[in-house]
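Example for tutorial group B:
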């Protein structure tokens, strides 16, 4: 199902040094049209760079909504895999960051739908409560 090698994705997700936190021109212009063109043509190196750049912000976004780091990593992995699978359809002139976070949000909402019955909803809410208690201990 996933066309990108697991090694490439693992490198991308573990290489947080490529993530730019300061609002400098390089960070604001990433990903540029050239990188996205390379991704649409199947360049795994460009895709790894893209994953590396957006992993940390995507992880923070997902953990805030899900309150579960493991589940957040799964969502991120699924969304990046979907982006890779549909890379030919990427519009290089559109805002990739908006596209990515819209996909993350949609995937999370889809994931939350599984908590419709009372027992799983209680389990999910207990997990959030447990997460919040851990956060206040620090």
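The residue assignment follows.
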């Amino acid at each position: 199902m996933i066309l990108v090698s697991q090694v490439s994705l693992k490198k991308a997700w573990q290489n947080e040094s490529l993530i730019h936190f300061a609002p400098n021109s390089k960070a604001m212009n990433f990903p540029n049209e050239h990188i996205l063109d390379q991704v649409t043509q199947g360049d795994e190196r460009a895709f790894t760079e893209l994953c590396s750049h957006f992993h940390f912000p995507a992880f923070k976004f997902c953990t805030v909504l899900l309150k579960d780091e493991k589940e957040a990593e799964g969502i991120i992995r699924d969304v990046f895999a979907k982006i890779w699978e549909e890379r030919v359809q990427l519009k290089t002139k559109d805002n990739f960051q908006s596209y990515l976070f819209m996909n993350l949000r949609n995937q999370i909402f889809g994931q939350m739908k599984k908590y419709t019955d009372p027992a799983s909803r209680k389990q999910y809410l207990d997990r959030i409560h447990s997460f919040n208690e851990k956060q206040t201990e620090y």
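The two ends are 40 Å apart (CA to CA). Compare this with the pattern of hydrophobic and polar residues in the output above.
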